[in-house]
UniProtKB/TrEMBL annotation:
This is Vacuolar protein-sorting-associated protein 36. It comes from Paramuricea clavata (Red gorgonian). It is found in: Cytoplasm; Endosome. Its main location: cytoplasm. One of its GO terms (molecular function) is ubiquitin binding. Component of the endosomal sorting complex required for transport II (ESCRT-II). Keywords: Coiled coil, Cytoplasm, Endosome, Protein transport, Transport. Belongs to the VPS36 family. It comes from the Eukaryota. GO terms for biological process: protein transport to vacuole involved in ubiquitin-dependent protein catabolic process via the multivesicular body sorting pathway. SUPFAM superfamilies: PH domain-like, Winged helix' DNA-binding domain. Pfam families: EAP30 (PF04157), Vps36_ESCRT-II (PF11605). Component of the ESCRT-II complex (endosomal sorting complex required for transport II), which is required for multivesicular body (MVB) formation and sorting of endosomal cargo proteins into MVBs. GO terms for cellular component: ESCRT II complex; late endosome membrane.
Amino acid sequence: MDRFSWISSNTQLQAGELLVIQQRGLRIYDGENKTNFDNGNLMLTSHALIWEDEEQQDRRIRLGLELITRTEEHAAGFMKSAKIFLYLNPPLASKDPGPFSSSAFTYIKLSFRSGGHTEFHKLLEQQLQKKAWLQGKPKEVVAPRVHRRGPGIVGIERNLEEKSRATGKTITQAFKDLDALMEKAKEMVALADKFASKIEEKKGSITEDETILFKSYLLSVGISNPVTRETHGSGTTYHKELAKQLEIFLREQLKDAGGMMTLTDVYCRFNRARGMELVSPEDLVNASRQFESLNLPLRLRSFDSGVLVIQSSNHSDEEVIRDTREKLFSNKCLTADELSKILSLSVMLAKERLLVTEKAGKACRDDSVEGSKFYPNFFLETPVE
């Protein structure tokens, strides 16, 4: 961060300097340390990076692109935003005052909490290659140096150059192969969508085993054209579009799960299907809260224990209580683990079913050092015939 300089809010771009792209919601790290340069607008120009506070627009800093030696893009992970690492040369002696007088790090991190890192990184690399800040500057004339090299050193240098060229060709080819693979993946998804519609048209003519097998193939292919902040902006608009895609994704899965899934289970399955375009837990919750306002057949529900689930809007607690009551009478008593195996549910959801049944007065609980066991409430209930 000691490479940045303060600039005033009315500072214009330099002569010949052009604005390339802007990105909102940027946080800057000094190496591994968080800074108070958070939630700002980051502008990439042909000459520099300019960060501006979204609330205090007179709080602006600038980093010349000539100081950047190399960059690295890091995709988002679980509870982590996507980042771009910038490795920097030492600050210039003539540098204007900045927010840091010194730093223990030789790199900074740009945290993209609102997405857009891939496009930004691509454009940044283009500007670093163009070196527009050198245009119009006189070139230095450097006197040639005479080096006495032994034949062994010359041979080593040639080998290194050849290896470097070979590595560059290999990397270029690898990226070409990756692009081709991604194009094929799009074709596979389109084909899968077509087959899915055919299955809907020909229900009854396809065996259940074939249907289950094909659904597993669909899940492994993933979601085509996932909703992202880059394509649908941020805020409510993004969450509404995400909710629509989530409802489509969960249609069949909720049926197989008995009409209810924990939010953690949904989070894992949804992100698995989205591939590299991961959503944060916060965005998933906000999207789930849009179901009712969009008239989608899903609801976000919170149990008394605090467990969040997504359930079908036609999901009936009365039906759950009746079914759980029958299982209790059939087995005399059940733990959450035992009920989960009977119903093929997670232990967490099985326990919530038992607690809901208990709350309705249809079950009794016995807590001991061995855990909780649930029994039919014989005081209010008669055995199921």
